[in-house]
Design brief:
- The complex is a heterodimer.
- Chain A is of the alpha+beta class.
- Chain A has 21 helices and 25 strands.
- Chain B is of the alpha+beta class.
- Helix content of chain B is 30%, strand content 12%.
- Chain B starts with a strand and ends in a 6-residue tail after the last helix.
- Chains A and B meet through helix 6 and helix 19 of A and helix 2, helix 3, helix 4 and helix 5 of B.
Amino acid sequence: MKRRQFLAAAGAGALTVTLAGCSLVPVIPKRPTSTADDALGWIRHDNGRYTLWLPSAEMGQQISAALQGLAAAELGVPPAQVHLQLPSTRHIARVRATVGSASVQDFALPLARACATLREALAQGQTTGTLAARDIPASALRSLQPRTGVTKEAAVAPGQLHALVTGQPLFAADTRLPGLLYGRVLRAPMSAEITSRPQAWDETAARADPACVAVVQHPRLAQMGSLGLGIVARTPSALDRIEAALAVQWQVEDGSAFEQTAIDERIDIDTHLHRGPLQHRPRKDELPTDTAWTLDLRMDVPLAAHAPIEPRSATAHWLGDAGKEGIALKVWAGTQDLFYMRDVLARQFSLDAERIEVQACRIGGGFGGRTLCTVELEAAVLAQAVGAPVKVQWSRAQEFAQGFQRPPSSHRVRAHVQGERITHWWHALASSHILFTPAAMPVWMQTLADLAGDSGVARGAQMPYDVPQQRIEFTAQRLPVHTGPWRGLGAGPNTLVVESAMDECARLAGADPLAWRLQHTTDARLAQVLRRAAAEARWPERPASNATTLRGRGIAGGIYKGVSYAAAVADVEVQRTTGRVRVVALWCAHDCGLVLQPDGVRAQTEGNLVWCLGMVLHEQLPVARSGVAAASFADYPLPRMGDVPPLHVHLIDSSAPPTGAGETAMVAGAGAIANALRDATGVRFARLPVRSADVLQALSTRA
Amino acid sequence: MHITLNQQAQPVPPGWEDEPLLWLLREPLGLTGTRFGCGMGQCGACTVLIDGVAQRACLQTARGLQGRSITTVEGLAAPDGTLHPVQQAWLDLRVPQCGYCQSGQIMGAVALLRATPRPSDAQIDAAMAGHLCRCGTQHRVRAAIHQAAGGVKP
């Protein structure tokens, strides 16, 4: 076909420019609201047996048990009679991603309506056919009625727990197929923000390994700026040997090198404030220019990793003998966004989405990090190249380096205290993108999106207390290391800073930290969790220091996404000679409205508290030589068994609409631990994490 | 070549004799309960018992385990399905969140209780320090070990 004919064929005055298999605009995740009619596709009845296709990803939040329990309660059968299945994209209508702790909020009501409709139809003797959901009010749904403590506990559904403790296959990497091969995509050891490609490699040496199947070059092996080189082998560990034998040399764009200091400089809050107002101002009350600030506090929070114990994995299988109509590609994935995976694969391979089936698998730790199509695409490209099913599981080093990270943030809080009140509050922060993640958005698109402001960066920066005059402003800077959603988005760092500043204000006013917070709020639910956490910890008792050990206690509270409440009290011990910090106890009061599955909410709260502990005392993702410098858990220490104290979680009995619990306690735990550390040592640590060496240095400076 | 796996003689498929035990178990033998987390003995997700002692399967090979007895999480329960007391405690206290590290945690706990039937908190913390969990289940792991040890905390 000649060029002129081709253009004519595009026809009708419209000229579109497309590149093979891709487009300049990335695939945008769709976020439909599920209805009760959609939910009727999640629940099925066949000969006395119920099957529930789980509409949200299961990644440890026990949503499977929560929705199984809800369905059982509505259907009027024991939970074990509701058979749980993780769906593929063929089993259910499109659902939104599992993010933002919204699964109960999004899915409880439609599922309950669907189950009630099914129950009524069965009671009337109907056993076949498809139903249309009735628009039953929440107040008439038995599964959504508040229950007393005893019946709540009795309703606990098994979810996948039995399969977990007996080691049954559940995760994407547990997929096994006849003739399965193992793949990996090698990439330049640097950030995908930098353009890089394989330049030279020793294929002869690689092929000398009897387990080597193929070395794959393909343009679809690109992730942002990084073009990879694929390898496929007969055993998983042969991939390590082949990678070493290939000794790939990389071509890297000039002038792109960076170190940690580049990141620190780009988000330095004082540099930004010096230039004038920040780009986004969620609160912009006028502040008097002559205010003498009672408090002027700078705090910096570093880059952090998701560090799930499961390195992400996918298996892809091209069904060569399927006709033009059937499924052409099947992928097993542990993803927070099943249908987005399918959309990306459809775009990449120019296939009709209906010809791709993505099967959901349990996720071995999501925390916001499993939202993009990475390993799924790698597996699909390699499987197509070798004509056999291929499993890819990232190495630990890849998991650290190739995902996106929690952005670092740099904060300055200024407050004016008059008598017993904060009268003026100014919180400025500089960070990197979270919802507009550079791992999926090219620069031009992010710049456009930035006009609206990345609300993920600002999450939790709106302080939960009553202060008449407030300025809250932020800027998001694109960093050379890709950042994105992490448990609680900006809420963990932002509320830590807010609650640290609140604590300092209380000290400056000579007030009790609990009383100080209570006199700054008229929100009854916030006051309730603060009082409850304090009461459980026998506030204002506090542990006493002695000759060898400094002891302190801190409190903090907050509101997550405007709907969920948490407060925490922490006790810490600091060894004077070593600087070692130990959190010895944590109490947390939690209010997420009506609780469908109390034990699941308690578990999520415990998890958040451990994340808070790690955030304050352990976690910092190092950057060096133009990328993430952590290759193993030795470079990114997580809290260990001996670091985690007894956790006392108290759920508020509430009949308010159910909200989220997966990230809520992030707004309380970190502040409580930081404030306890301040209480014990007399030092407000301005940089996280606070490690033994930092404590020793601060103590010696103070002495 | 054969290994003794969950009390049965198990032939090792050709080409897998010198591969890490982790991959031999997971891929050709299909025992996927032993999981890959780091491949360098840092996380504990692939813990199995070798002659009753907790070992990381990513650091062992079939050839190195001739004549030794290997137990995986799939081999813990009785043939009739009755769970091992450690598995039962894990279920009762609903320890797992995402669950990816939990078969390794369970194997570590079984080995601990074989050596120390009534461990203290400090003994649990020391024995389980090499088992990472990102979800934050440490508090429940400790409680479940006490429960499996007889329910009374020393």
